[in-house]
Amino acid sequence: MSEVGVRLARSPLGLTLDAVREAIADAGLTLDQIDGVATYPGKMQAFLGFSPIGADDVIEAFGLTTRWHVGAAETTAQLGAIAEAAAAVKAGLARHVICFRTVYEAAAMARPDEFPPMERRKDVTGNSQWVSPFGAFSAANWTAQFATRHMKRYGLTREQLAQVAINDHANAALNPRAIVKQPLSLDTYMSARMISTPFCLYDCDRFTDCSTVVIVSAGDALDEVRTIPVRIAASAGSVERYSWDQAEWASAYPTGRDLWKNTDYRVDDVDTVQLYDGFSFQPITWLEGLGFCPVGEGGRFLEGGKRIARDGDLPMNTGGGQLGWGRLHGFGFAYEAVVQLRGEGGARQIGGNPRVAVATSGGGPMAAALLLARD
Fold first, then answer.
1. Are 247 and 144 in contact (CB under 8 A)?
2. pLDDT of residue 135
3. 121 pLDDT more than 80
């Protein structure tokens, strides 16, 4: 992982190259052993702050000779790029694949001449045509609608919702790479200004500049790797695409169910979860969708915050999540899962010799999940 910050002066390519170099050194590989690159969502010329670096940029900058690479937004969310890399190495298309996600949204907002904001149009096209007529211009709006439904139907409270942010801040305070350095109290949370009911300021992640890299290697190439390997035991993903017939449930639910169809592991085997939290409600959809609690019980599962704390039954977002670490846009959860399974978490390391973790990304109209194991 590169430096993590807000409005960094480093270029997005510079951050990406830093993270790639660190990942390669950690794996004990050399550049000439890398023969694949995967990223999400690929370079987006119309929205460079969101995704300024593509697979081609990394291949060119390092002079890589690749046999396979991919970068696209039309997939099952951010961690889908890692699942695609796993499929490629299993099919023999590559042996060592660099998977990365680079975000530069905070710096881009401060430098609009270099990183133009998205064009404002009079017509409504793409995904916007399904949400803009209803005033849901931001992901905060439509995620808030799912959260409000949980409040009305199942009794979710803001005090329960707050436990996600409070837990994230507590863990981020122990993470030297996180942008949040102080714990969060319930009183501070409850007094914060509202963004999109029921979300307040602390329920929403903030734009961050960073690059995160994971290297996926083929099973028969592990003799070339000089680090503790973590196995992708299963993956799943789904897309509940925008249309006139809106999905009743976020895509975390079908993705969570499908994950267990691809493995002999079960919910009780999981030692830690790293659940996407662009908004504080999203981990609730993942807890329910993955089966850690029944649908509608996510709020009560979070009650008091003890169950998801680092010393709780199910340590969650141990690095601080996106609300505390920064908006690393999904890849930070795979990174932290590996850190915990290797026992390299330092002050934030959970006890009990963790061996199985779940990492997720997305959870609204698209979602992806990885089940990771240290054998």
1. no
2. 80
3. no
User: What is the pLDDT averaged over residues 291-310?
Assistant: 98
Residue 259: CATH number of its domain = 3.40.47.10
Distance CA 268, CA 223 (A): 31
In this structure, of 22-31, 198-207, 243-252, 285-294, the range with the lowest mean pLDDT score is 243-252
Query: Percent of the chain beyond pLDDT 90?
Result: 87
CB-CB contact of 195 with 306 (8 Å): no
Question: Are the beta carbons of 354 and 230 closer than 8 angstroms?
Answer: no
Q: Looking at the chain, which runs of residues are DSSP E strands?
A: 36-39, 68-71, 96-104, 194-196, 199-200, 209-217, 231-239, 272-274, 356-362, 366-373
CA-based angle 92:97:102, to the nearest 5?
150
Which DSSP symbol is given to 204?
A: B
Task: Give me the domain span that covers residue 351.
Answer: 12-117+136-373
pLDDT tens sequence across 21-60: 999 999 999 999 999 999 999 999 989 999 999 999 999 9
Residue 6 domain flag: no
Residue 226 neighbours by CB under 8 Å, 6+ apart = 27, 28
On whether the CB atoms of residues 350 and 319 are closer than 8 A, the answer is no
Of 240, 164, 239, which Cα lies nearest the Cα of 204? 164
CA 31 – CA 135 distance, rounded (Å): 48
Give how many domains the chain has, as a whole number.
Answer: 1
